[in-house]
Amino acid sequence: MTDHAAVTKVLDQMSVIALDCSIWSGARRLKPEDLVLGKGGQLPSDEVVSLGSKKLCKREVLKPFHRLRDQACRLCGREGVRFLGGYAVPDHYVSGLSLKLDQVQQDFNQEKQAFLTGYDQHIQEWVNTHPDFAEAIRSAVPDVQDVSQRFHFGYTTYKVVASPQPDNLNQQVNQLGGTLREEISRDAQALFEQTFRGKSKVTRKVLNPILRLRDKLHGLAFVDPGISPIVQRLDAGLSQLPNNGALEGEVLTQLMERVLLLCSVEQMERCAEGLTTIDSPYKEQPVKVQNQESTQPQEANDAEIQKEPAVEQQMVVPEEAAVSATFYF
Q1: Where is this region: Disordered (predicted)?
Q2: Of the four, 164, 220, 260, 319, which is 20 to 30 A from 279 by CA?
């Protein structure tokens, strides 16, 4: 199969979803006349002024919009992989994902209407909080209609078709597998650090984020022939887990090793080549007995609207001497 034919085959199985979200900053440019210095003058609080801008309302009233934007990114990132400024999503996932994004859009518009309804009150409360800077705030407050146009949430779904000169596009498509492994690795590292490190016993809820990573790999396996072997190894290992009860002992060790497989792009590539022994970038830590069940962010996974996206977490992989981890698949 030629490279062009292979790229076309990948493109035929996926769509691109591009998010379009804008949120009013709640700030305006700071002008020289806003600052009254000299005898008797005072610099305004850094809560209201920072880096050349002045805030016009409390930050908290804008948080629902940022939360919904992050939620939309997580929804797309769960089933898709970054591509051309959007997310490449398997065609058979587009319908379900669109329904979820439609709900986010509805929620965003409701929050927008609520914010605009209380706009004057938000401004007045901010003025009351910073009376010494009241005039500078009032003079910069935009009209509510102008603010209304600053809020928007939408998305576009489209198919990509190879062009007559497809070199650049082919390169982007051929990188999808690498991008997918990088995204899986980043999320798996967050999962390992937050859920497994130092634990001797975990509940079965930890399987939910692992299965989400597995499903993402499975759904996008068509972008790279090296993805399916990883899914097969995960499935073979997960099928050996007991059907109920907490996970501990050898069972937990095996489960952690599977998560470690996903933590490393290199290890995923090696396992795709049929290797069963891999080098772990993590130094094994002494297992500490936990007297109480920890509350894990992943275990609150399905309340993801309240969470910061895992994709934004900066995970620090210790630069320890490599140790060997054997998979039990």
Answers
A1: 282-310
A2: 220
- Residues 33, 63: Cα–Cα separation, whole Å: 30
Find out whether 31 and 102 touch, Cβ atoms under 8 Å.
no
Average pLDDT estimate for 132-154: 91
**Amino acid residing at 152:** H
CA–CA distance, 299 with 193 (Å, rounded to integer): 14
Which amino acid is located at 92 in the chain? H
The two tokens of residue 136 are: 């500078």
Summarised one tens digit per residue, pLDDT across range 243-280 is 888 898 889 998 998 999 999 999 999 887 775 444 44
Please enumerate in sequence order all residues whose Cβ is within 8 A of that of 195, keeping only pairs 6 or more positions apart, or say none: 202, 206, 209, 296, 298, 299
Burial of 164 (0-12, 13-18, 19+ CB in 10 A): exposed
Rounded to 10 deg, the angle between the 228-238 and 249-263 helix axes is 170
Predicted confidence at residue 284, as pLDDT, reads 38
The C-alpha angle 100, 105, 109, rounded to 5 degrees, equals 150
Q: What are the residues whose beta carbons fall under 8 Å from the beta carbon of 307, sequence distance 6 or more?
A: 297, 300, 301
Tokens for 10? 């990948």
Q: What are phi and psi of 277, to 5 degrees?
A: -120, 130
Q: Taking a C-beta distance cutoff of 8 angstroms, is the pair 228, 181 a contact?
A: no
pLDDT in tens, 20-58: 999 998 887 777 667 665 556 666 677 777 767 888 999
If you count them, how many residues does the chain have?
329
